[in-house]
Design brief:
The protein has 15 helices and 13 strands. The chain has 391 residues and is an alpha/beta fold. Strands 3-2-1-4-5-6-7 form a 7-stranded parallel sheet, with helices on both faces.
Length: 391
């Protein structure tokens, strides 16, 4: 019904993770687009359950409201990091730019786990219907482009121009890290260890959160980091958004660990990080772009592999030293060799076909600006091979 309203030629609608945050690829694209077109009408879909600020030039609209539907029906450009609902119908005059959010992620996207659980059939159909509407998918690697073709059944152009959120990490400007430290109250002369583990789907299914999987001994790790790398260390933890309430309890039990779960800009946080530890989160690949030491710590890999959505890599395939317990974690730090680590990282990026330019947000924004200006826009297809094999 809302398609009877005319399309607004200067309106762009942005949706990130169901309105949970002002973050990810869309943040950087839209900020570059605003520089090129200061008068555009930017609509940011926002879930009111999450508190965060938006720039004054962005207009928030409530997620899953009638206004939400209206804005989609009348926006000239759509952009999302997680697929628009498949019951939307894009109009011919509209442009839809999909970036997804995983990059070199470890866990499989839902379309790659067909047959492993019956419920995934519905989600797979959703991915296919939603991807059919996209005009272009943005990729940062051959690894991700293959996933788009195979799991999403997407047959349109895939532009491997890099991930906008990673431009900052490729540029590696120290001022970005200094800004994050100021905002978080971390002294400039301190070294920072960031522990950023991810969520487990089984927690939702079982309606129980097992915090034992996050049992990294931060005080022990702090001692070994000091012995290995020198300096004074600030230990910080960033939980998955689904663990926000539990993060508060964690800090009470670990007063020497700074909780940064609510810090909005993950990429700027990575700019303030000297050593990174994660389990299965794709943010570890982002951190490695800065060529800093990164370690994986996961006590439940076999369970995660078979009871979650599956994984694209065995942990030993990754360039990051892998520990299953705190003893192994200590040994990995003690034995760490930066030259060997960087050789493994560089070889891994070649194998994955990684391409991060440092200016992808600007490149995408320029295409969007041309489209708003009424110009014909064509997208470079960097992965023309059609993948039809089912996994």
């Amino acid at each position: 019904m809302l398609r009877v309203f005319p399309i607004k030629k200067n309106k762009v609608i942005v949706e990130v993770s169901g309105g949970q945050c002002y973050d990810d690829n869309q943040k950087y694209i839209i900020e570059e687009l605003h520089k090129l077109c200061p008068d555009i009408n930017v609509v940011w879909i926002k879930d009111p359950r999450y508190a965060y600020e938006l720039p004054s030039w962005i207009r928030p609209v409530k997620w899953r409201s009638w206004r939400w539907l209206y804005e989609y029906a009348t926006a000239k450009i759509w952009t999302s990091n997680g697929m628009v609902p498949d019951y939307f119908v894009k109009r011919k005059e509209q442009l839809y730019v999909e970036t997804w959010h995983g990059g070199l992620g470890i866990k499989k996207v839902i379309g790659d786990v067909i047959g492993e659980c019956a419920a995934d059939w519905t989600n797979t159909l959703f991915l296919k219907n939603a991807s059919d509407m996209a005009d272009v998918f943005i990729s940062n690697s051959d690894h991700l482009s293959i996933i788009y073709r195979r799991a999403f059944k997407f047959h349109g152009p895939i532009w491997k121009c890099g991930y906008p959120k990673n431009d900052m990490l490729v540029q590696n400007n120290p001022e970005d890290g200094e800004r994050a430290r100021r905002e978080l109250g971390i002294l400039m002369n301190k070294k920072v260890l960031l522990y950023a583990p991810t969520w487990r789907l089984r927690f939702t299914k079982e309606q129980h959160i097992d915090m034992n999987v996050y049992d990294l001994d931060m005080q022990r790790l702090k001692r070994v980091l000091t012995e290995k790398f020198g300096g004074e260390w600030t230990m910080v933890i960033r939980f998955h958004p689904n663990l926000r309430l539990y993060a508060k309890g964690y800090q009470k039990a670990h007063p020497d660990v700074k909780d940064v779960t609510d810090y909005q800009d993950m990429q700027r946080l990575l700019m303030a990080t000297d050593v990174m530890v994660s389990d299965y989160s794709s943010c570890i690949f982002d951190a490695a772009l800065r060529r800093i030491p990164c370690f994986t710590y996961a006590t439940d890999f076999e369970q995660y592999k078979y009871e979650e959505r599956g994984v694209y890599y065995e942990m030993e395939e990754l360039p990051f030293p892998y520990a299953k317990n705190n003893d192994e974690m200590e040994e990995n730090v003690k034995a760490f060799d930066i030259e060997d680590y960087l050789k493994k990282w560089d070889a891994f990026t070649v194998r994955m076909g990684l391409n991060e330019t440092g200016h992808s947000a600007k490149d995408i924004a320029e295409k969007m600006a041309d489209f708003l200006d009424g110009k014909k826009v064509t997208w470079q297809n960097d992965y023309p091979i059609q993948i039809t094999k089912e996994i």
